[in-house]
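Subject: for your reference before the review

Hello V.,

The reviewers asked for a structural picture of the protein, and I figured it would be easier to keep everything in one thread rather than splitting it across files. Below is the amino acid sequence we used in the manuscript, unchanged from the supplementary table.
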Amino acid sequence: NEFIIKKKFILFQILFLTLITRMISIYFFGDEYISNEWGHIVSNLEKHNIFGLKNINGDIKPGIFMPPLYPFFLYSVKLITQGKFFYETIFFFQILFSILSTFFLFKILSKFYSKKASYIFSLIFTLIPINIYSSAQFSSINLQVLLTVLFIFFLVNLSQSKNLKDLFLFSFTSGLLVLL
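And here is what came back from the structure prediction:
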């Protein structure tokens, strides 16, 4: 029993390190406003109820193909928070996505490798610079990583269990990835 608690504490430490590194990244590198295409799309959704990037001769047109999931996520958070603590809420979700990615990666790895190897690979994953930096940016990277890890997690579960719940979750995650 003590052995199990010790192993869970190691995973907790890795997840806590994920949290701390992301918070430090936000403090030093965090976006202060949405300055890229995400900001234009969210603004057009707010003002015109149109999913578009460019305003050409009074018509809002998509400038390039933009998958809708992340802009609609930003827009939904903005509607729910009514603009109050909007950036903090987005950063909270970015950190949550990162922690969940690390946790589910550990779960995948522990199905194929020893717990020790799974801890080491999870630690390396949580310290990859792009994973840390992307938590501090208005970017779909953290959501992409989470959905990809979940896709693999449910695929592995489905291949081992042939369970209807895993089939549904695998299919749902696949659909979200297409929208991202």
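For the response letter, the relevant points are probably these. The mean pLDDT is 86. The helical segments are 2-29, 37-48, 69-81, 86-112, 115-126, 129-134, 141-161, 164-179.

Happy to draft the paragraph if you're swamped.

O.
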